[in-house]
Design goal:
The structure holds 2 protein chains of 2 kinds.
Chain A lengths: L4 H10 L37 E4 L5 E4 L9 H11 L9 H14 L5 E7 L6 H14 L4 E5 L1 E3 L3 E3 L5 E3 H9 L11 E7 L2 E6 L2 E7 H25 L4 E5 L17 H7 L3 E6 L5 H11 L2 H4 L2 E9 L7 H11 L3 E6 L22 E6 L4 E2 L13 E6 L2 H6 L2 E4 L1 E2 L2 H10 L2 H7 L6 E4 L1 H6 L2 E4 L9 E4 L7 E4 L4 E10 L6 E9 L1 E3 L7 E5 L2 E5 L1 E3 L4 E4 L8 H10 L15 H19 L2 H8 L7
Parallel strand pairs in A: 3-11, 3-12, 4-11, 5-8, 12-13, 13-14, 15-17, 15-18, 18-20, 20-30, 21-23
Antiparallel strand pairs in A: 1-2, 6-7, 8-9, 9-10, 16-19, 21-22, 23-26, 24-25, 24-27, 27-28, 29-30
Chain B lengths: L2 E7 L6 H14 L4 E4 L2 E3 L3 E3 L5 E3 H10 L10 E7 L2 E6 L2 E3 L7 H18 L3 E5 L17 H7 L3 E6 L5 H11 L2 H4 L2 E9 L7 H11 L3 E6 L26 H19 L2 H9 L6
Parallel strand pairs in B: 1-9, 1-10, 2-9, 3-6, 10-11, 11-12
Antiparallel strand pairs in B: 4-5, 6-7, 7-8
Classes of the chains: A alpha/beta, B alpha/beta.
């Protein structure tokens, strides 16, 4: 008689039940787990890749599968249900069940295959290469997850569970057709001042650290352990993990302090490909130098080279590629052409506004610590609209809509605004053009900002805001709100808006007319402030422009009035992003020798 | 005998132009007669000399830095891309109709060498600037602007790497490693540019790189957000510092250069660079 046969049969009859979040033990294996096989039909499988013998209370060994994630994958759960449907679990033999398990394993890897995408420098194109591979393998039917151990970025977004991860990992998750989660980017560094960053772990703010503390104390102990744990978790619940390195893996001054490149690749047993950009020249030198500076045991992990961002005809590289392959012994797997893509921007170096000469200029103040400037990508969906990043009073005077964006340091950037005379320039436009503050910009629009908890300054302080709307903001605790929200726009013709909040500090909106009402359960919670008479708006919602209502409303109020919304023909940002990811994936499939890459990874391609 | 120095970069936009300008100004202020020289420039930002010749704006800027009038011989070849795959060639300051032809490169190099001799005849020191990376193995036989020019001028070479995007050790080392043996011998030092933070953290990396290359790091130059004339769209980055009320951009560039030179004097080993100049190999 099999253990729990009765329970297992009932489970199989009920079929796929997804995540049982109501269960007091949820999540007993991992967040987002499938709970169909609460009692595993294969127990005790004796498969040491999935579980192990542990001493029970009376000392006799007992099979433990607390670390098995496999049966709790949604796709595995479904396959197992199908394979065992109608089976008499009371009399099933070990051999029969083992055969079933083996069949399921053929389809769904017990342990993922991983690939590490390294770059010769920041901006080599790792992130989009990883995104392309996520999409390609997802298209092939694999369960894929992106991973980046450590990211330094101010462009964060919030997962459905309220975890904060870098925007680029969210994009990669989208490419892999997965919900983003904190383990895809276990360490996020958000630079605050020159040498201080806020450290976010598994999507939750941990604390502020300076560079010596981070590399000296945190990285060797906690940091390294967090990365290993995240890798291990992803390897046990995916078919393929596409890992992205950070910066260059050959920073010989960092030594073992680098936990973002070779260390996670070693954890995962991942072969590596090295990506170099052709954009600035010197790509061959950077590839050779990177390989030469890696210690031999790590150099041998690099199994392929991808040359990226090629402008013009790749055939001119011929002799260079031959020489590089000969000198390094590593094959060049492809030369990927330069692509113009509309995808969320990654770092502030690409802050140049959208091309084109629109009749309506959306002027975004270029704060020194500008954050979440992907908020403004959506304006490029509107014909005749261009986004410009402004740092002069003249630029502000010329804009048809003024936006003060989010910032990692409200007080510091407010002082910068004043130093440059931008405060007066903005206030002079009140009543003439719409003025919008997002997050930190919203805080600046208010009358007062109090930092009693020294979140932003070394000593408690009170600063006057621009006073364009009568709200006050208090930083009275080291707390951060990160969540996704949706609601109804409270101005103009209304309409559904959605977005996410990532902020420290609380703003007292003192019953002013809100910009929107958030749907929280059955209640409607007012969010932000709208003064339709003066055209000043503030909100904590990032991504509020991604869907049309507020974007269109603002454009309809823009002074020159030349803008005409383009009706329903305009795609949503999500649709456009998916289409762009498909285009990127197709270009990489075309340019890169996928058979060779998959042979290196040990995965089947195409996937049967 | 004129002394020459070549500033070569691990990538475009590594900071060659500005460092060359700073060296021009430094040695000029020490009393030398200094001139800039760049064999070949690919740029749409051009300048007209007093005698109506066209050169890259960067060489004009470097000439002002050296306290002299820009002249066409300081930038013998200027290539101006105007459509995908199509360029205008400006040679010795004049546009020429230049369909690709057999021996074109040698013709161009001869004219460049003649220009160099003109520059050398009127100065004590020539600061030569390379173009792009000197280590493109697919271009090795065709590249005139880097090691070919260094050999022609007998100029020792300094390699500049931009650390801002990371990978600078790999970039500098790989550049050196891809050079032909005899060209490597011309490399007398390297410079790490655009560093943010405390340079002491770079110590172990610099030690290893100097040991591998057999030449010293001549300095770590901090990132300085100042406005200078941009050569190409790679350097289209906004800067943090306003123009200080001055409405003459050329004056702003030079006053910014003076501020940058202070930084260079504090961060580069200019004494060693001057000594390297003296060790120039006889060229021409």
């Amino acid at each position: 008689m099999r253990p729990y046969a009765e329970r297992v049969e009932r489970q199989l009859e009920r079929g796929d039940r997804g995540s049982n979040t109501a269960c007091p033990y949820y999540p007993c294996h991992f967040k987002g787990q499938n709970c169909t096989h609460c009692f595993c039909p294969f127990y005790p499988c004796g498969d040491t890749r999935l579980g192990s013998l542990v001493p029970s209370r009376d000392g006799t060994p007992v099979w433990s599968c607390k670390d098995c994630f496999w049966i709790h994958r949604h796709d595995v759960a479904k396959t197992v249900c199908r394979l065992l449907a109608g089976k008499d679990m009371h009399h099933a033999t070990d051999e029969e069940l083992a055969a079933c398990k083996e069949e399921a394993e053929c389809r769904h890897a017990v342990r993922a295959r991983a690939l590490m995408v390294l770059g010769t420098m920041s901006g080599a194109g790792k992130s989009l290469m990883a995104a392309a591979l996520c999409r390609i393998f997802s298209d092939e039917g694999y369960l894929v997850s992106p991973f980046k151990a450590q990211n330094m970025s101010l462009n964060a977004c919030v997962t459905p569970d309220g975890e904060e991860i870098a925007r680029i990992q969210e994009l990669q998750a989208r490419a892999a057709r997965r919900e983003p989660d904190g383990s895809m980017n276990p360490i996020l560094l958000k630079p605050k001042r020159d040498d201080v960053s806020q450290v976010v772990l598994y999507g939750r703010p941990y604390r502020d650290m300076d560079v010596p503390t981070y590399y000296g104390d945190f990285v060797p102990s906690t940091g390294r352990a967090i990365v290993s744990a995240a890798v291990s978790s992803l390897m046990r619940r995916n078919d393929i993990v596409i890992m992205e390195g950070a910066g260059s893996p050959a920073e010989i001054n960092l030594g073992e302090g680098d936990i973002a490149n070779m260390a996670p690749a070693e954890d995962a047993g991942a072969p590596c490909v090295l990506v170099a950009t052709m954009e600035r020249g010197g790509a061959f030198a950077y590839v050779l130098g990177t390989l030469e500076l890696l210690p031999p045991h790590r150099r041998s992990m690099v199994r392929g080279i991808i040359l990226n961002n090629m402008h013009g005809d790749a055939s001119v590289l011929g002799s260079g590629i031959e020489e590089l392959e000969e000198r390094t012994g590593v094959p060049v797997l492809g030369v990927v052409p330069h692509l113009e893509l509309s995808l969320p921007s990654e770092d502030s170096q690409s802050l140049q506004g959208t091309p084109g000469t629109g009749t309506c200029t959306v002027g975004v103040i270029r704060l020194p610590r500008i954050a979440n400037f992907t908020d403004f990508d959506a304006f490029s969906l509107e014909e005749g609209v261009c986004v410009r990043y402004l740092d002069t009073p003249e630029g502000v005077a010329d804009a048809d809509i003024i936006i003060i964006p989010g910032t990692k340091h409200t007080l510091g950037d407010l002082a910068w605004l004043r130093e440059r005379g931008l405060d007066a320039a903005i206030m002079a436009r009140k009543g003439h053009v719409p003025i919008v503050g997002i997050c930190g910009g919203y805080q600046m629009l208010g009358t007062l900002i109090r930092d009693t908890a020294c979140v932003e300054s070394d000593e408690p302080c009170i600063r006057e805001g621009l006073g364009l709307i009568p709200v006050e903001t208090a930083f009275d605790a080291y707390e951060k709100e990160t969540r996704q929200v949706e609601g109804t726009l409270a101005v103009g013709e209304g309409g559904r808006v959605r977005g996410y909040m990532i902020h420290m500090g609380q703003t007292d909106r003192s019953r002013l007319p809100p910009l929107c009402f958030l749907h929280e359960g059955d209640t409607q919670v007012p969010e932000g402030v709208a003064n339709e008479a003066t055209g000043v708006y503030g909100t904590y919602m990032h991504g509020i422009f991604d869907v049309p209502p507020f974007r269109r409303y603002l454009l309809s109020r823009a002074s020159r009035g030349a803008h005409r919304p383009q009706g329903d023909a305009v795609a949503s940002v999500d649709e456009r992003t998916d289409a762009e990811l498909d285009r990127l994936a197709a270009a990489v499939r075309e340019a890169v020798d996928m058979e060779a890459l998959c042979a290196i990874m040990g995965v089947a391609y195409p996937h049967g | 005998m004129v002394k020459a120095l070549m500033v070569a970069g691990a990538t475009s936009d590594a900071g060659k132009t500005l460092l060359s300008a700073a060296l021009c100004r430094h040695f000029s202020q020490k009393g030398y007669r200094v001139a800039p020289f760049k064999t070949l420039n690919i740029s749409l930002n051009a300048y007209s000399t007093a005698d109506g010749k066209e050169i890259g704006i960067s060489q004009a800027f470097q000439a002002w830095a050296a306290g002299i009038e820009p002249a066409a011989c300081m930038n013998p070849i200027l290539i101006k891309p105007h459509a995908p795959g199509r360029c205008q060639y400006v040679v010795c300051g004049r546009p020429v109709d230049m369909p690709e032809h057999e021996g074109m490169r040698e013709d161009l190099m001869e004219r460049a060498a003649a220009c160099y001799r003109k520059v050398a005849a009127m100065t004590d020191i020539v600061i030569c600037e390379g173009s792009g990376s000197p280590a493109e193995p697919n271009l090795r036989d065709r590249d005139l602007a880097n090691m070919r020019t260094a050999r022609m001028a007998g100029a020792p070479v300094l390699l500049v790497g931009d650390i801002d995007a990371g990978g600078v050790f790999a970039g500098i080392y790989g550049t050196w490693a891809l050079l032909a043996q005899e060209d490597r011998a011309l490399v007398k030092g390297y410079i790490i540019n655009r560093f943010r933070g405390d340079p002491s953290v770079l110590g172990p990396g610099i030690d290893e790189l100097s040991r591998r290359m057999g030449c010293p790091c001549l300095g770590v130059v901090p990132y300085v957000p100042l406005r200078f004339p941009a050569e190409d769209s790679c350097s289209l980055r906004n800067t943090d510092v306003p123009s200080g009320g001055n409405d003459d951009m050329r004056a702003v560039w030079i006053s910014n250069l003076d501020r940058f030179l202070e930084v260079v004097r504090a961060s580069l080993d200019l004494g060693t660079i001057e000594r390297i100049l003296g060790e120039g190999i006889h060229g021409l």
